[in-house]
Design a protein that fits this description.
Radius of gyration: 24 Å
Helix content: 25-40%
Oligomer: single chain
Distance between the termini: 22 Å
Number of strands: 17
């Protein structure tokens, strides 16, 4: 059995043959204008190992195998782009997420004050903003324009979902004479970023593409934590506490909370651990039975008989076998449209106890859009600031086709081509998930 000591427990799954080399647009020959002591600059030779198990490291060193390691993020002593002639663009894509405005602000302030870049443009409404047919305006960004946006939820630039023609996006970059493109988004955005970078390379252009991982689901591979996740968990905890209050306020009270988590149940699991008031936590990674002696309904009945109340937290992607239609449907981003597991459980729980002649009071709370629309908490705000700064340092050094990641307590450069290969999910054999089961006492909710 593999080690299970990491909080989110995915670092040990990183293969040894992962490619961590970052592409450079050319030699960096311009002295960095940052007024920093020499020891504060970072070189490409400074790398961080991606696996931290002592036994793995000891064995790899003994056998002479190369260690999977990534470039350390940070300002380089020499940069590729001349700040006085550099034009940068920022675009936000996909769903809303706490902290987007903080990242935008950090990018602008670092470009403007640290490097002296004066031509910074915000692309409105995601990738639609590059396509002439939509007619969206471009926003000129400066410290004055972004002064207070970090106090707001959502994205100051607007966003959209769906695929746009890659050739038209690169055409727009050429027309605007853009040298650096910052893309803030999740898995779908990263796939688009990788294709944009490929088209830029095919045309022989010198445009850097740097991505910043954004998703409250925390499901980006090779990243310990995406920004907005901590804020989302905080907001989910508020809903759970309300559900608990409702549940204990009536005999056989049931508080049911649905949170976001299409493929990965990190919000549901982390909020369960944070509140310690949840009795059943249902996530996409862990199948569960509804009926039968060990299924959810029977377990819920036993819980009510013993304690007179219960709290259930369900991620939106959990239990899809119960709510998916025969013909799958997809949203504009290509994601499978989910059935509503929350309302299904609410109605089935009521029906189950009505058939048994047991009176229950079910209080259903769906805080999904509240969770993703609020301003970032302090922890996420600090994190967003670092992500923006490191993204600018990488771009100004002429690095491209990468995302800024956070692994083993270090900010690193990771290739987009690797980041999009898989999705990070809760490891149901990890200490993290076992702690959830220990907290709830729910067991595996399977009949076999």
């Amino acid at each position: 059995m593999k080690p299970t000591c990491s909080l989110f427990d995915f670092l040990e799954e990183i293969p040894e043959d992962i490619s961590t080399e970052i592409e450079n647009l050319g030699p960096a020959r311009i002295e960095n204008p940052l007024n920093l002591p020499e020891g504060c600059f970072v070189t490409d030779e400074m790398r961080v190992t991606l696996r931290v198990s002592e036994s793995f490291l000891r064995e790899a060193l003994k056998e002479g195998r190369p260690l999977p390691a990534a470039e350390l993020a940070g300002p380089r002593p020499y940069i590729y782009f001349d700040p006085s002639k550099t034009r940068a663009a920022v675009v936000t894509c996909g769903g809303l997420c706490p902290g987007i405005n903080d990242v935008i602000r950090s990018l602008v302030l670092t470009l403007y004050y640290s490097y002296g870049v004066r031509h910074i443009y915000g692309i409105r409404y995601g990738l639609q903003g590059f396509i002439p047919a939509y007619g969206h305006d471009v926003v000129e960004l400066s410290p004055q324009v972004v002064e207070g946006i970090h106090e707001l939820g959502g994205t100051f630039l607007g966003t959209s979902r769906g695929h746009q023609p890659i050739d038209q996006i690169v055409d727009a970059l050429e027309r605007m004479n853009i040298n650096i493109l910052f893309m803030i988004g999740g898995d779908g955005t990263f796939r688009a970023a990788a294709k944009i970078k490929e088209e830029i390379s095919r045309r022989g252009l010198k445009i850097a593409v740097v991505a910043i991982p954004k998703t409250i689901d925390n499901d980006i591979w090779l990243v310990s934590r995406t920004f907005g996740f901590v804020t989302a968990v905080e907001e989910a905890c508020k809903a759970i506490r309300c559900a608990h209050t409702e549940a204990v306020g009536a005999p056989n009270g049931i508080g049911l909370v649905k949170v976001m988590g299409r493929y990965s149940g990190f919000i549901a699991a982390a909020a369960t651990l944070a509140t310690r008031e949840v009795n059943f936590c249902l996530i996409p990674e862990e199948d569960f039975d509804l009926e039968g002696p060990r299924g959810l309904l029977a377990a819920l009945e036993r819980r009510l008989a013993a304690r007179k109340h219960a709290v259930i937290v369900v991620a939106e992607g959990a239990g899809q076998k119960y709510v998916q239609g025969e013909k799958p449907e997809y949203d504009p981003s290509g994601n499978l449209k989910l059935g509503d597991i929350g309302t299904f459980l609410r109605d089935r729980i009521k029906e189950y106890f009505r058939e048994k002649g047991i009176e229950v009071y079910v209080r259903y709370i769906d805080p999904s859009y509240i969770i993703r629309s609020v301003p970032a908490c302090v922890d996420d705000r600090i994190y967003c600031g670092f992500l923006g700064q490191y993204a600018v340092h990488a771009a100004m050094a002429g690095k491209t086709g990468l995302m800024i990641g956070y692994l083993n307590h270090h900010y690193v450069h990771l290739p987009l081509s690797e980041a999009v290969k898989r999705r990070k999910r809760v490891n149901t054999q990890s200490r993290f998930w076992l702690s959830v089961l220990e907290s709830t006492g729910q067991g595996r909710l399977k009949n076999e």
